[in-house]
Structures are given as C-alpha cells and as structure tokens.
Fold this protein.
Amino acid sequence: MTAFHTVCILRCAAGECRDILAGTTVALHGDMNLVKLNLFAIAALFMLAHVSAGCTTHLYSPPARLVPLESVATLPTGRSGIQVEGGGGGGLFGPSFLTGSLRVRRGLAERVEASLEGNLLVVNGTQAAPSARAGIKWRANDFLAFTLGVGGGSSIAGGFISPDLGVIVAYESRYFVPFLSARVWSSSLVGARTLTLDDGTGTLAQFRAELTLGTMETLGFRIPFAHEGNFARGAIVLGLSCYQLIDRTRSDGGVLLNGGAEYAF
C-alpha cells in the first residue's frame, strides 16, 4: 500500500537493497465485544503475513488511490462531506514515508455516494507522487459496501492511469464502527520514463515500470460524534493497511498506519 511509485529502500542482512515504487456480510450474535476482538486479531495476523521485501531494485507503476479509511456508511441524499487522512510507515528495514489525502463526498441517492479525492505520497521528504481519483460507493446492506473508481497522477517513472475496485465489511453503531476493507487495482504508465538506478549491488542499470497490479487490506475503526438523530456529522478514523504490488516478474509489499477526520454537512 499506499507507498506508491517512489522509493522504498529495504536493507538486507547481506547488504543494501532498494525497491523503487512507481501509493461478507457476517451475522453477529451473542457477545459482540468478543466477536470484534477476534475479528481484529485474525485480520491483523492475515495482514502481517502479507508483508514482503525484495533485495534488488525494481520499478512499479502506482495506484491513484492511497489509503482510504471508510466504513460501509454512505451520506444521505443531498448531504456532503470532507475527509482528511494522513499517515506513514515503511518496510521492515526501509525509510520513512508519508501519505496524505483530501476527499470530498456527496450523497447521490439512498445508499449511494460519489467522491473526488487528491492524494500525495512523500518518501524521505524528497520525492513526491501526486494523484487524483473519482469514485462511487454503493452500500448493499447494513454490513457490506462496494467501491469503484478511476484516477491518475505522475511520478518519477512517468504519468499513470489506475482503476480500482473494493469491498468493505463493517459493523455500524452509534459510537464505535470497526471495519475491514479489501481493494484491488491496476496501474498503467503513460509516457513512461527509463531511469538509470543502482541495481542493489552497486552497479548502475536501466529500469522501466510496466503494468502493475496491486491489493490492499485495511483494518480500522471510526468513532462518530456530533450526532443529529441517527446521523453523525463528524468522525475520527484510524486504520492499519497492508499492500501488495505485483507485475510480470516480481511482487513486494509493506504496511502503513493512517488516521483521519471527517465532517459532513
């Protein structure tokens, strides 16, 4: 996840390596607190098992969407909302990186909302990869929602176009909303650049990103506040995300911790 299309450096015990990135519905009964804790524990172990690290330089094309923190809830028809998100992370032995997102949402119909967002990834405080995305979310029932979107941006390896498809499972309540989301995406470069980089052994070589596929799983929770009846104007959101980048020859992954706030009007 969301370290997308800039530099993620992973140092191995035998030397230095660089990885350059081109960002169920469940019926629950009984003791809800115990069920929620078990869900979080299982999902966290699943996400940590996905983290991987490569030991040679590789170039990926990035996704347009970074780390969306959202439950199944949609805005009522005619309502709008603003959400700000940010965070960071890195590989097990890699550098620091930061992510930031600004999202505007609008309720279009019952259980349907549209969104427009801008995203920015900064690695080691020097390299930035901005992107923008338009999307839609449909809430199928009280526990399940689907998202669909497309966007694009620019990076050190060139411009890119990236569609994505996601699913969200959540247990909506008045004061605490746990959620688990999964997303798949593809990214194709437009005007790709060939870069001369260290291949991880101290030798310069040429690299060019190609079609990249990716997945992201996010485990998080929302804390709604400022209620007007059953509608909450504000919420604090926190999530732990795991991503996987895959192309024709290789795959790599990592973890991000992000937080955010949203306000609806």
The chain has one domain: 7-264. The domain at 7-264 is CATH 2.40.160 (Porin).
